[in-house]
Fold this sequence. Notes:
mainly alpha; two-stranded antiparallel sheet; 15 helices; 2 strands; 80% helix
Amino acid sequence: xxxxxxxxxxxxxxxxxxxxxxxxxxxxxxxxxxxxxxIGAFSMGTAGVLLLLTARxxxxxxxxxxxxxxxxxxxxxxSVAIYPLAxxxxxxxxxxxVGTVVSIATAPFFAATLESLISKRHISKQxxxxxxxxxxGIVLLALGKEYGQDDAYSATQQSFGVLxxxxxxxxxxxxxxxxxxxxxxxxxxxxxxxxLFGCAAxxxxxxxxxxxxxxxxxxxxxxxxxxxxxxxxxxxxxxxxFALNFIDASKATLITLIEPLIATLLATFIIGExxxxxxxxxxxxxxxxxxxxxxxxxxxx
Length: 301
């Protein structure tokens, strides 16, 4: 019973974090003349610094554990640095909904692959069914996007945006796996996540010297930049780190498929992106995928 409550807490934390992450594409679209590289670097880099500050005491206690796994730390930090650059660039090239869907929906596959090949974890039949349903939903959602004559997304841009989305999914799964492994080695969730994000900040923040010219050029851009760093990135990853105490990375990333659903709804009703009926069927299947996985977690004994 106690284990069930812990799993439920983990699910709730990931759902809230996913909802916050789902707002990033729509909010970022309100910035003007800002590179997606700058948005990604500032939001994730600033979140990394804040995570380090909030977890500084725990990080000192766990420093020996974390430093004893340099490969995991390096892989995770590099993945954190790559993720926002690929993610926001994917949304810029292929649209908010498609970019978010591809980036997030490919993560469970990569996470399960890492856990199976490296951590030697068994991938359950329930997970495979959930992923199969979700994968079909993702394909239908991507195919269901409508483009008008005024849309600026060329076929080449779309293809490159999808590839960047896959890269984002791989990096997302990689740092989730790295954080989970540090936790299982004995590190607290806050120190595990903050160590990855803090190291990534060393790579991301200096890049703003080249890309961050317009981040704070006006009030609107300033509010967007601060929101992205403080709410979805900092608060969202605090919740995600908490959830990894109770849920495997492959399961956590599967539940975060709620993020593209939120992103799609916001892009539809606020930005004006449109989808055919097949796209909405895809949304329904992704929702079913999340439900199937959540039921398993809640009922696990």
